[in-house]
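Researcher: Please generate the 3D structure of the following complex. Treat every line as part of one assembly.
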Amino acid sequence: MARRTTAPPISWLMQLTLERPGLISLAAGFTDDETLPAREAKAALTELLSESKSSRIALQYGSTAGDPTLRRLTTERWSRQDNNPPWTQQIDPAKNLLITNGSQQLLYLVAECLCDPGDIVLVEDPTYFVFLGIAQSHGLRCRGITLTDAGMDLAHLEQVLEDLKRSGGLSRVKFLYCVSYFQNPTGRTTAWTVKAGALELLRRYERAAGHPLYLLEDAAYRELRFAGEDVPSTLTFKQAYQRVIYTGTYSKPFATGVRVGFGWLPDALFTPVHRLKGNHDFGTTSLLQQLLVRVLESGQYDRHLEVLRRRYAHKAKIMTAAMQETFPPRVTWLTPRGGLYVWGRAPRSWKTGIGSRVFEQALQQDVLYVPGRLCYAKDPTRRVPQHEMRLSFGNASDGDLRAGIQRLGTVLHAAGNA
Amino acid sequence: MARRTTAPPISWLMQLTLERPGLISLAAGFTDDETLPAREAKAALTELLSESKSSRIALQYGSTAGDPTLRRLTTERWSRQDNNPPWTQQIDPAKNLLITNGSQQLLYLVAECLCDPGDIVLVEDPTYFVFLGIAQSHGLRCRGITLTDAGMDLAHLEQVLEDLKRSGGLSRVKFLYCVSYFQNPTGRTTAWTVKAGALELLRRYERAAGHPLYLLEDAAYRELRFAGEDVPSTLTFKQAYQRVIYTGTYSKPFATGVRVGFGWLPDALFTPVHRLKGNHDFGTTSLLQQLLVRVLESGQYDRHLEVLRRRYAHKAKIMTAAMQETFPPRVTWLTPRGGLYVWGRAPRSWKTGIGSRVFEQALQQDVLYVPGRLCYAKDPTRRVPQHEMRLSFGNASDGDLRAGIQRLGTVLHAAGNA
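Model: Done. Output below.
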């Protein structure tokens, strides 16, 4: 495993950002510095550590699955978002919920639990590049499913499943990974009908696969919505809860320095994933779980979320306005309605990868982005597109967003004229 | 992996403790409630979140390897404990140090990095049972090395290495796991000469193994010393740093609700383990790292540690005095000089495992301990001893320690008379 595991690009990009203070980073998924909830966290922690009972819970070990109150609050919150889907009334919803160190850990645990080296995972094309690192490290093969503006292209998903069935590969497929809200990296949200179709297709191929085909719905950005309506999760479909792994996080909507995520798991997966979590760390740190209990109960979490939503709406507007103004007209993008990213698409012949002229010149100009190609799985059935870039409006200040995009605009104009 | 992974007994025991408030638990490794550093943590967090720079660092993502200041402080602290061994002046000590979610995560990462299913790990007999869970989950085989009062029996270690060499198994041996200070579960500390001998033996068999044989030194309880002198770590031996993985934790000496550990890794292992950590969670939560920076720098950590040491000395004394008073004379133990555990040994014919009369009667009397057999690896070359028990004085109150031991004494007398 160690020999197989390559350096994750996120670490390198994050490291670069931390080490070069002059650099304007539109790359790593850091969140907004100005709205970090210092006042809210201080108030909650002070309260928490002033009472003997709550401070004892916060400073002592807890259980592997997570704090019971946080699990209850998480269940209630999520049920509300999905308008209390009927099945949550039938089974004990807290039973299948695991608290993790950010949703990242849940992704890791699921891959570890479901897959052997050589297995196949279906991913969006492009997808969250850290997930590709996990897959690569576990020796998994990925097949990319083309994205449309409404999420996965169902015709392509069907074609891939059919191909795999024909070639005998279907028995190695374990799950489909879908970043369903304001996707990292493209900002796209999966439509409800697409979720329905994907679930239906997976179900249809189960018999040929010989085992369940799960859908791993990564809803990390769901709460960071600043335009449009929420879309119900895949869990709302009838009986879907036995095939859907749903993961979310409190880190991005509250503070990325407070790493607490969660995952909702089908009965068949909860026990093994829970055991693996026990081996990893026997439980997420209590202090952070209690901090979240407190801000969720007091309403501070929701008030802070409103601040964040307004702030990211503002920053997304600054970024896209600057792009409109300074990028060559042949570079296009989708206006984000949530999340942290704008996905820029240059003409196909303009390369944006590490080592490309655009990337190197941008670095010379002290501006960093995530090359789009890093977000594509190694899938031998298609060429990796080289002409895209993930631009994050999460961390940079308003001024840096404008300056960074302007510099990048200059670099892209030069590329267009080359 | 999921099929292979069994339920970790620690989770079950911890769950039982959390769910039955009437139960006196001398089982799980929870720490003392009365000395939890609520005041210290509150003061440090308030300071931290009152300044804009420090609160930004605390509430934002950091790097995968850990906060640079915490890594520097950890290096300095550890070097001081070892009287600044010469090699720390020659190489950049922060380079090989990884901050993890408790030292547990480091144990997991090392097993994941070094081992394939079917590989062999040498462990103390008995050893930390959660590590056995990690090994089992990864499909590793364990060989137990008999413990003496000074640590591993070197003659037995040599015999096991020789056996493995002869049977062709040596090429599957990856490392030796040693809980070197106030060992969990027996409370024993490995003597300096035993460490030297173990390293020497591993080195001698490297050629036959065909690859490095590492020593994983788990120093989780090193700071919880309340009697006797400190023993230098294995890292103090000449050139040992290329064969030693040293792991420690801030959780037990500060607060178990603040899960931060660390690991010192040889050059050849740092990069792959760092990458795996990137896939697990790309870095331990910043808020807790900054809390530790603050209490380490202010001296609060050390002042709190003094309180803890006095407290555990006191609790160990209460426990052993009660054992002296109420246990049948045929049950023996080693007086602890640190850590959280007393290892009780009944006569060989008295069974203490889950399902045994002693365990069930103890549970009926509302007292829980860790059956000694859980701490023994599945090693086909010897029978698992059934007559021991790990008794923790960490969490129970003074009164509960006395009452719990008294109840257990009654159960053990009955066993003796049966």
